[in-house]
Specification:
single chain, alpha/beta, 47% helix, binds ligand C2E, binds magnesium ion
């Protein structure tokens, strides 16, 4: 199919193409150009300690600065990157840029050894034979500790080649990287994966957090996930926290960290740097 063909392929618009196929072709062409033209950028969403309120890390979230449309959501273009294989070079760029950001914060005294930056990793990217190699390369080049990186993977990534996936995860863990299972509870066989995979952190999907204070089923699900994590010695991060009531629920039930609009939306590198500085200043004031 066309998607497997070379980069220089020039496709001609067919009048018979559906509107959807046309839109997709336009997006795909734009995405091929985006990496070259440096239209991708990262935003950062702080992760906060539920009990102390301190920033203990962040998640790197990819954005596309489209020349005409403005900022495009990853929900729209990640599936295309995955289907075309473009996720491999783009994912490499994400990892590289994430390491560069951590290095910059570390140099400025804003990033401490216990802090972690979450990077989303796609199945196809993780399956590359040289994946471990370029993780090593990126961390060494930027002189950051691998333990400052947290790789966010999803359950859907794990359906094929379980054995190889587990081996590769273990090698990266030996190197110091941690693993989070992202959007936990939305995929298949969550509990079977928890048993078989070397996971450090469970990220509870925002779909369970949304109605946590009004829907007894969601409340029960989140309480249960937190209890399982506690028993299995896994850390927990709640996603999509938007209200003080949701945070109070998480506090009462022993969730470790959260991220969400209640604390901050994903923000630019500059804004994240300023937020980390403000936290440093606050600690200084409190210590004196
Ligand atoms: P995710 O990893 O589950 O990221 C969390 C998403 O929830 C982000 O959407 C974030 O902006 C959004 N979010 C955070 N707090 C709140 C909140 O309080 N309320 C609501 N309603 N939403 C909140 P975003 O940035 O649009 O990313 C969507 C998805 O795209 C991510 O979901 C992730 O699966 C994927 N993605 C983003 N960046 C990358 C990347 O670099 N590589 C790969 N492979 N996937 C990525
Ligand atoms: Mg994520
Ligand atoms: Mg998530
Ligand atoms: Mg999600």
């Amino acid at each position: 199919s066309a998607k497997n063909e070379g980069k220089n392929l020039c496709r001609v618009f067919q009048p018979s193409m559906s509107e959807e196929a046309t839109q997709r072709m336009i997006l795909e062409t734009g995405l091929r150009q985006a990496l070259e033209d440096e239209q991708f950028f990262l935003t950062f969403q702080p992760q906060v300690d539920v009990s102390t309120g301190a920033i203990v890390g962040a998640e790197a979230l990819l954005r596309w600065a489209h020349p005409e449309r403005g900022t495009v959501s990853p929900l729209e273009f990640i599936p295309i990157l995955e289907a075309t294989g473009l996720i491999v070079p783009v994912g490499r760029w994400v990892l590289e840029s994430a390491c560069a950001a951590v290095a910059q914060w570390q140099k400025a005294g804003l990033w401490h050894s216990h802090m972690r930056l979450g990077v989303n990793v796609s199945a196809r990217q993780f399956a590359q034979a040289d994946f471990i190699h370029y993780v090593r390369h990126a961390t060494e080049q930027h002189k950051i500790s691998p333990s400052m990186l947290d790789m966010e993977i999803t359950e859907s990534m794990l359906i094929e080649q379980m054995r190889e996936t587990v081996d590769r995860m273990q090698q990266l863990q030996d190197y110091g990287v941690t693993f989070s299972i992202d959007d936990f509870g939305t995929g298949y066989s969550s509990l079977a994966y928890l048993k078989r995979l070397p996971i450090d952190v469970i990220k509870i999907d925002q779909g369970f957090i949304r109605d946590i204070t009004t829907d007894i089923n969601d409340a029960a699900i989140v309480e249960t996930i937190l209890a399982i994590a506690r028993h299995m010695n896994l850390q927990t991060v709640a996603e999509g926290v938007e209200t003080p009531a949701q945070l109070a629920f998480l506090q009462a039930n022993g969730c470790d960290r959260y991220q969400g609009y209640f604390y901050s939306k994903p923000i630019s590198l500059v804004d994240m740097t300023n937020l980390l500085k403000a936290q440093g200043n606050k600690e200084l004031v409190e210590a004196t």
